[in-house]
Amino acid sequence: MRACGIDFGTSNSTVGMAEGGAARLIALEGSAVTLPSAVFWHEDGSPSFGRAAIADYVEGEEGRLMRGLKSTLGSSLIAERTRVGNRTVSFREVLGRYIGHLVVPLAAQDDRPEAVVMGRPVHFVDDDAEADARAEAVLGEIAREAGFREVAFQFEPIAAALHYESGLTAEELVLIVDIGGGTSDVSLIRLGPSRAGQADRAADILGNDGIRVGGTDFDRLLSLAEAMPYLGFGAATKGGSGIMPRHYFLDLATWHRINMLYVRQTMTDLKALRHEADRPELIERLMRVIEARQGHALAMEVERVKIALSDAEAARLMLAPICAAPNPMIRREGFEAAVAEPLTRIRALIGRVLAQGGVAAGQVGSVFLTGGSSQLPVVQAAVAGLLPEARLATGDMLGSVGTGLALDAARRFA
Alpha helices of 253-376 — where are they, by DSSP H? Predict the structure, then answer.
């Protein structure tokens, strides 16, 4: 049975095919093999996807941009409905439309795959097995609705391990560290050419765990630390006796919750709060962002600065075009301070996985870093600090899971 692998990511998605023991990613948007996990719903109710969706938003088309869609899986949001144009849709429908579009290129093939291995984080939801099972069930239903007769799942870090293994010439004990947009997953696994052909790899997996922390959390914390204070986050009200409610800023800094603010009641509340604020001009900036539906523009600017700080010690956050605020200079050490808590959790996660395998850090031969957020220097430094003797290996940060899933699909459905 012909099969493929799908990596539906919080920030980007890929589709992989494997033939003759080799895997490749297929083009999803022009010649690009990645598709940003974004949907733009036009006022007439028609959606656009990926880079086209982001372009429609940036160019000022009337409608709503949705990103961070994967984060709704396992949450109560998945069943909620939101207004798009002249109708309402559930977030489950949004996910279904996106994944349906993701597999459109497969329909053009003479022998369309009937089976798929879907990637999934080790935990969609932390410490909630029932919610985790519901998330996988919904994703499985959506895959079947997209036309697949057989649907299987594989943990994303194990898929990344299979990708990494395809380039090995000798056996290694490898720690896979997959820091994606929404989750961080770590696996400890024995890899090598002599093991690659085995049907059952369960004995090779010595440790496997994950947490719901990823790049979108880094975006949120950077936004709260460096951008939101210019819009009134933490600002005093009533002559210093009160403080602005936090929830507006938390929603505005969280990709998949931004659209929740675009309701009439938000503006009504903020108009009242402006009169109570000690610095009403800050609240006016917040109102400008919400009224013009510039929340995603603000989030994208914060994300741009986060990425820029991978190569530079400082980057300017351009707030003036979005809300007429100053354009502050953000320094790398400020970003690293903002994300200290999730980094502590990632370090603890790595420690738990090593303990599961009964392995000391010095016994790990290589660490394979994958996922977009693993490129951040602060992440790489944290990993290197825990495993100083291991070789840090990087590869296709956005494509390793997709190609690994394709290899797994070819093995399962041969």
Answer: 264-276, 280-291, 295-308, 320-323, 332-338, 340-356
